[in-house]
Amino acid sequence: MAKKTGEKYQAIIDAAVRVIARQGYYSAQVSKIAKEAKVADGTIYLYFENKDDILISLFNEKMGQFVETNRRRVSEAKTVEQKLYELVHTHLSQLSEDHDLAKVTQIELRQSNQEINEGIGTVMKQYFNLIEEVVRAGMEQGIFRPDIEVRIARKMIFGTLDGVTTSWVMKQCKYDLVSHVDSIYNLFLLGMKGKE
Question: Residue 58 region, left (φ>0) first, then alpha (ψ -120 to 50), else beta?
């Protein structure tokens, strides 16, 4: 199997995002992905074992970049409040810029099998760790309440961002997703700060 790098590999990944977003994972045939990527059907099997492998690779590639961008923006922020804001803003802005990727991550991956869920677990864990780091930093600096259960806070933060994005996708991405950033950020901040 060819290494998962290079122009053809990237073309297949990008084509898979478009085809799966348009047709759904179960209707997206490998031959359609090959045609969209402008490669021969057999070329796909030089890089991927099967369609599940394409979806896992697509997620790990695209969400790996997503997490890396988030981590960079959070690390550049000076204060914990700014880090939390960047976390919310970067999550929503990245998905709002790529409607096809948002459809794949919010809808198609939910309907996937156990093998796919296990294949994407590492990238999701990296993202969960980043969210937990922000919460812990806020607690250590005395900005957030000391009694916060970090895992619950992480589930709340991710679950809210995920739910808001899914709702946006279900409404055909017709409104400005990023316009929700301030409201969500303020809810998180006030909830974790508690009483002054």
Answer: alpha
User: What is this structure's pTM?
Assistant: 0.90
Helices (H), 24-104: 30-37, 41-47, 51-76, 80-96, 99-103
CA dihedral (64, 69, 70, 73) in degrees, to 10, reads: 160
**Across the chain, what does the average pLDDT equal?**
92
- The region that residue 194 occupies, defined by phi over 0 for left and psi between -120 and 50 for alpha, beta otherwise, is left
Tell me how crowded residue 188 is: count the other CB atoms within 10 A of its CB: 23
Other Cβ atoms less than 10 A from the Cβ of 163: the count is: 11
Among residues 65, 60, 100, which one has the least CA distance to residue 48? 60
Integer Cα distance of 166 and 39 in angstroms? 32
How is residue 170 written in tokens?
């279900």
- Residue among 186, 28, 173, 1 nearest 102 (CA): 173
What digits encode the pLDDT tens for the residues 64-88? Answer: 999 999 999 999 999 999 999 999 9
Query: How many residues are recorded in the chain?
Result: 196
